[in-house]
Design a protein that fits this description.
This protein is α/β, with parallel strands linked by helices and 342 residues long. It contains twelve helices and twelve strands. The strands form three sheets. It has an eight-stranded parallel β-sheet with strand order 4-11-10-9-8-7-6-5. A two-stranded antiparallel sheet has the order 1-12. It has a two-stranded antiparallel sheet with strand order 2-3. The longest helix has 33 residues. The protein is globular. It starts with a helix and ends with a strand. The model has no long low-confidence stretch (mean pLDDT 95).
Length: 342
Amino acid sequence: MPAGARDYYRGGAHDELTLRDNRAAFERWQIHYRVLRDVEHRDLSTSLFGHRVEWPVLVAPTACHQLAHPDGELATARAASAVGTTMVLSTLSNYAMEEVAREARHGLWFQLYVYRDRGLTAELVARAAACGCRAIALTVDAPVGGVRERDLRNAFAFPAEMPMRNVLPRGPEPPPPDVPPISFQQYVNSMFDPSLKWSDLEWLCARTTLPVLVKGVVRPDDAVRAAEHGAQGVVVSNHGGRQLDTAPAAVDVLEPIVRAAGEKLTVLADGGVRRGTDVLKALALGARAVLLGRPVLWGLAVGGEAGARRVLELLRKELDVAMALAGCRTLGEIDRDLVRRA
């Protein structure tokens, strides 16, 4: 990949402390495994909002997959389907949600940014329901764009020949080459609504029958508010370390959020998941499932659909082995007693 695109994917905000801590946080937990549990047969499946997935890892919403491969989100959706899980499609995808939904045989969720143009936002929500999306993940941790210094050093901007088709009129031609390129921070600051507040969550929930998750929560009190204002789930997330540097790693705040959410919310988490043992630890701390971001993009860059699928297959196999070695036959047997802070 060109350096600018590669750094756009892998970089974080400012000194990238949160980016690194997302990984380091998993290393601060140990698995106190059980033995003699008869783990010959294992079941990795779970249910999310009434729909079964074959294992508890979803593909996280990430922008502009064509930076990695020409087939972009179409290839990613096929890869997710091939391994029995759901893709969460970014608002900022290079392929329109209707095109991606046709490839997502194991379900599709839609990640939503709220635009200053509420008519456009309402249209995105309606289109997501119409094309068969099963949930809306409302991202709330980007009222303004984080400062990503790799992008500044590289003068990175989204290529004009890779438009974000969800927010263009249906069936457009690519913009002409003289359209000035725009950076992520410029795009966020010009297009997204920084006045977003809790009443806007109620507005969204009233506009759709799909379950709405609030993505970007790191505090228990915000999880409680999300439930009070109509959300059915939250994603514990710091935006992959790309927004506010020195924010906490998701796995460090997961347990108190799960406790505060109680039975009111389905709790998912993302950030720093790289190994099957990471998935097991997040589940032990109360997450129903996790989302995987950058590794899928690296697989996509190396081998398109087959590369993304291979990354997911590797992680699924690792989780299966980790469950067996920890003495767990089902996800329900992965409980809080299984992990200790190192």
